[in-house]
Design a protein that fits this description.
Belongs to the short-chain dehydrogenases/reductases (SDR) family. By secondary structure, this protein is an alpha/beta fold. 47% of the residues lie in helices and 14% in strands. The chain has eight helices and seven strands; from the N terminus they run βαβαβαβαβαβαααβ.
Length: 260
């Protein structure tokens, strides 16, 4: 199926691995000219090589921390007029809110709320002028079902979601859509490292811990990052212009609700 994206340009943030890389790979497979960002040059180069091997597409890299003004400037210099923007950044660490200082909150907000807004501000008027734009924000299932130990992430990502809910309706008449992808548990390096730590704490092997973790997921497994990448393509497709301001939850059914 042709999703109508050949020749479009995409800026995919924090895409050197994990879900960002999956989105970049799926977009490249559809003929999109992809630029990826990441903090580590060597990891970015490896990611670009992996995308080339899987899709045959050359990828532009933009090293830098997307949570900083310098990182965003580098990304926009490499891809100044994207038709597609995929916002993504690593989540804040877990903890007890009693231990967090103002600086911790500001850092979380900078990475997971303010940086995406700054990037949208930089590119959205160009999208409006071209009458095509797809903005996809990778947030978290915690937006719908907060995780108590991830309060910094819960707060910052929920703030972003609330802001974008209004903005999405403002830009929609120009064929510019803003939607969010909410991942649950996907089989990424981050999940594997978290699983290994939990296994040590619980006196189990990593394999036993993985099996225990999947019991709470009706699908009976963790998500494959490639599934996430294809969901991103779906939201970016030329035929998806009527999907506006939505929060697409990909969690294997772990969030139990009939509505919402």
């Amino acid at each position: 199926m042709d999703v109508g994206l050949k020749g479009r340009r995409a800026l995919v943030c924090a895409a050197s691995k994990g879900l960002g890389l999956a989105c970049a790979t799926s977009l490249a497979r559809e003929g999109v000219a992809v630029t990826i960002t990441g903090r580590t040059l060597a990891t970015l180069e490896s990611a670009a090589a992996a995308i080339l091997k899987q899709t045959g597409a050359q990828v532009t890299i933009a090293p830098g921390d997307i949570a900083t003004p310098e990182g965003r400037a580098a990304a926009l210099a490499a891809c100044p007029e994207p038709d597609i923007l995929v916002n993504n950044a690593g989540g804040p660490p877990p903890g007890d809110f009693r231990d967090w200082q103002r600086e911790d909150w500001i850092k979380a907000l900078d990475a997971n709320m303010l940086a995406p807004i700054e990037l949208i501000k930089a590119v959205v008027d160009g999208m409006i002028g071209r009458r095509f734009g797809r903005i996809v924000n990778i947030t978290s299932s915690a937006v719908k079902s907060p995780i108590p130990t991830l309060g910094l992430s819960n707060g910052a990502r929920s703030g972003l979601t609330g802001f974008l809910g209004g903005l999405a309706r403002q830009v929609a008449p120009n064929n510019v859509t803003i939607n969010n992808l909410l991942p649950g548990s996907f089989l990424t390096d981050r999940l594997r490292s978290t699983n290994a730590a939990e296994a040590r704490e619980n006196g189990r092997t990593p394999e036993e811990e993985m099996a225990e973790s999947t019991r709470a997921i009706p699908a009976g497994r963790f998500g494959d990052p490639s599934e996430f990448g294809e969901a991103c393509v779906f939201l970016c497709a030329a035929s998806s212009g009527y999907i506006v301001g939505q929060n697409l939850l990909l969690d294997g059914g772990a969030f139990r609700a009939s509505f919402g």
